[in-house]
């Protein structure tokens, strides 16, 4: 497949998925109930071959975690649109003593370009999908159709059509008995597991509301270089563009929002929000909002208020906070009763690493042939954050069913270095962005 045609083909695939799932509502998929075959089983002594697709910092970290799992394992292929990302990643891993002997990636297996993922997938048993989320539906579809087990980072798509495609691919993964782990590592963290269990058991009575925060300084920005195309600039600065990143509710806050969804055992039915772009007069700031205040409402009337900001000179705060009838809870301060006395907190000094645990569980499931498929809740928590972004961009109350069934795609029609990106800057380097009350989001 050529660089210039693969995305058009992907959009056609997405349209097919949309037609199949246009009436689908979230949690009705019940992936875990699908039939299981006997494919994809590895003995403990077998060498599992992995491919890394997306070789930035997070991709490198995922590869290190995978290579530290029990049993024989090798990294045999790497793919990225930028060769320097591959070179930097392998150089870093070669400095890590306990994994460098597991790096079996000759130059012939370092694939560069928009179709590089196909070549890497073909050489592996397990693929690590760690590109910007715009590519996740395409890469996940290709990996599962090729019969590969998958680790994929969050978010899982940038728009609703992508979410529906991911959900459909997750069903196929279950039918093929392929194992899938999503990089929302809090679900694998013993501290979070213990806290959520205690809240469900009524440690502070009925939980009446929750608030989550992801407030940090400015996002890292890579300056333009001479001769760089707009597509390359945006790919280098993918967190500044909604079509690549899905926006900061997805790229940042999803971890905390997913904890609330996990506790609730469900997903919001609607959202309203305010948000904006404080840095709108600065060049090269992309089309993302840099501040959000989102109110998610669940079917039982429960409310999650979500605050996001990434601006210079502002205070920082993070985490999910629960308000119960008889106290409060967060992973940071523990569970406290109505008098403010702490009644639970995970022991400090723990060496447990949730990033490692999620990979341990994936490869354990592969070797033991036990069911493991995170696709549904990973996709629907991503959809939750897309719902929040839609509400802020539109300035309207947005219902889940309308957001989920939206046919508005953010992706370009053609992917190539000389292709026009979905948003383009004006002569001053300023990008158009959503105007609440005006911009369509559905």
List its traits.
442 residues, nine-stranded mixed sheet, 2 domains, alpha/beta
What report would you give on this structure?
The protein has 442 residues and is of the alpha/beta class. It has two domains: 6-186 and 355-373, Rossmann fold; 189-347 and 384-404, Dihydrodipicolinate Reductase, domain 2 (2-Layer Sandwich), CATH 3.30.360. It contains 14 helices and 15 strands. The chain has helices at residues 6-21, 57-67, 83-93, 116-122, 136-145, 160-175, 190-200, 230-236, 242-245, 248-251, 254-264, 354-368, 375-394, 400-404; strands spanning 48-53, 73-80, 110-112, 126-129, 149-152, 180-182, 207-216, 270-276, 291-297, 303-310, 317-324, 327-330, 334-337, 342-344, 398-399. The strands form two sheets. The chain has a nine-stranded mixed beta sheet. A hairpin with a 3-residue loop joins strand 12 and strand 13 (334-337). Helix 1 (6-21) packs across helix 6 (160-175), helix 5 packs parallel to helix 6 and helix 6 (160-175) packs antiparallel against helix 13. The longest helix has 20 residues, at 375-394. The chain is globular, with a radius of gyration of 21 Å. Residues 1-39 have low confidence and may be disordered.
């Amino acid at each position: 497949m050529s660089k210039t045609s693969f995305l058009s083909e992907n959009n056609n695939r997405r349209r097919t998925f949309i037609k199949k799932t246009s009436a689908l509502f979230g949690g009705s998929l019940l992936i875990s109930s699908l039939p299981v075959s006997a494919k994809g089983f590895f003995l403990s002594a077998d060498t599992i071959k992995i491919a890394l697709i997306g070789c930035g910092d997070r991709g490198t970290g995922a590869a290190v975690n995978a290579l530290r799992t029990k049993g024989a394992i090798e990294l045999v292929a790497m793919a990225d649109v930028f060769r320097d990302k591959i070179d930097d990643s392998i150089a870093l891993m070669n400095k890590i003593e306990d994994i460098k002997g597991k790096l079996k990636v000759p130059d012939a297996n370092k694939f560069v370009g928009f179709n590089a993922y196909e070549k890497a997938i073909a050489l592996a048993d397990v693929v690590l999908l760690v590109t910007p989320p715009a590519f996740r539906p395409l890469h996940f579809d290709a990996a599962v159709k090729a019969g590969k087990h998958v680790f994929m980072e969050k978010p899982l798509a940038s728009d609703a059509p992508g979410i529906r495609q991911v959900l459909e691919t997750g069903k196929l993964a279950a039918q093929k008995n392929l194992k899938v782990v999503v990089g929302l590592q809090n679900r694998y963290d013993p501290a979070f597991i213990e806290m959520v269990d205690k809240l469900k058991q009524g440690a502070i009575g009925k939980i009446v509301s929750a608030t989550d925060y992801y407030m940090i300084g400015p996002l890292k920005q890579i300056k333009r270089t001479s001769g760089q195309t707009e597509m390359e600039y945006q790919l280098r600065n993918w967190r500044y563009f909604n079509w690549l990143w899905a926006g900061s509710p997805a790229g940042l806050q999803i971890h905390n929002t997913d904890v609330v969804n996990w506790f609730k055992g469900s997903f919001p039915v609607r959202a309203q929000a305010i948000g904006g772009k404080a840095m709108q007069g600065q060049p090269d700031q992309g089309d993302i909002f840099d501040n959000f205040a989102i109110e998610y409402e669940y079917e039982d009337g429960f409310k999650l208020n979500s605050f996001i900001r990434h601006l210079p000179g502002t205070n920082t705060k993070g985490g999910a906070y629960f308000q119960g009838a008889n106290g409060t809870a967060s992973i940071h301060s523990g569970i406290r009763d109505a008098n403010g006395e702490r009644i639970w907190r995970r022991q400090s000094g723990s060496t447990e690493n949730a990033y490692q645990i999620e990979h341990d569980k994936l490869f354990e499931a592969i070797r033991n042939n036990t069911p493991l498929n995170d696709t549904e809740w990973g996709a629907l928590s991503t959809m939750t954050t897309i719902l929040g972004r839609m509400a802020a961009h539109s300035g309207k109350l947005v219902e889940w069913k309308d957001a989920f069934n939206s046919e508005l795609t953010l992706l370009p029609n053609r992917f190539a270095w000389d292709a026009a990106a979905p948003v383009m800057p004006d002569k001053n380097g300023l990008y158009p962005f959503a105007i609440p009350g005006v911009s369509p989001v559905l």
